[in-house]
Design the sequence.
């Protein structure tokens, strides 16, 4: 394996370092997104149970503190609902939707950079292939029609290696983007489910609050 890597790096030509730099950029972007999404993960069932228990006991400030102590897109959605808990169902829904929409760009940040790496790497590889092919034709023009094939071996090798590296970097970037995009979609789905659940819970709490119409209808006369 080491000999293969050594052969690739020693025969990649002029575009070896641009491809390496592009691969490093893609790796850094993917690693940063992985860490961000990992920190954004929480046990939503346990978190919601804790928030509901606090709100049911009238300890709204403690519920908001719990949200602030666990930063992330899901807790932001819950916090937005709690901040509008006494303003009616539509206000709660609007607050939750606004918080969710503001979190989605943060989740998708820098994923476009990974796609750019995946799209650019093959072009750099093909550019290296074209440069190597041009060098080969220049050698042919200088040496004439009767030339040893070994003269072109280095140029052909550089062309192939450049193409291989470009495709390899693009493939790895696409795999990384697919994984990260899947995690982003999962977090967005969790935000939708949590938002719907906290909306229903707060709406029920408002209906059971003394002074509400539902409370008055359900109270004994």
Sequence:
């Amino acid at each position: 394996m080491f000999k293969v890597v050594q052969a690739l790096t020693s025969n990649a030509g002029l575009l070896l370092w641009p491809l390496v730099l592009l691969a490093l950029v893609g790796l850094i972007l993917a690693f940063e997104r992985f860490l961000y999404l990992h920190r954004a993960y929480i046990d939503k069932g346990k978190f919601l149970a804790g928030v509901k228990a606090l709100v049911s006991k009238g300890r709204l400030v403690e519920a908001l503190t719990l949200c602030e102590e666990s930063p992330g897109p899901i807790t932001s959605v819950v916090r937005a609902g709690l901040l509008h808990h006494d303003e009616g169902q539509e206000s709660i829904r609007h607050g939750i939707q606004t918080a969710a929409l503001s979190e989605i760009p943060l989740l998708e940040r820098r994923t476009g950079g990974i796609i750019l790496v995946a799209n650019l790497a093959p072009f750099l590889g093909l550019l290296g292939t074209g440069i190597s092919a041009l060098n080969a034709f220049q050698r042919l023009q200088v040496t004439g029609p009767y030339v040893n094939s070994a003269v072109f071996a280095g140029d052909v090798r550089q062309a192939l290696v450049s193409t291989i590296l470009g495709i390899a970097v693009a493939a790895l970037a696409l795999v990384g983007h697919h994984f990260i995009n899947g995690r982003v979609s999962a977090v967005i789905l969790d935000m939708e489910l949590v938002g719907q659940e906290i909306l229903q819970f707060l709406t029920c709490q408002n209906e059971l609050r003394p002074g509400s119409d539902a409370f008055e209808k359900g109270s004994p006369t």
In short: The longest helix spans residues 150-208. The chain has one domain: 2-210.
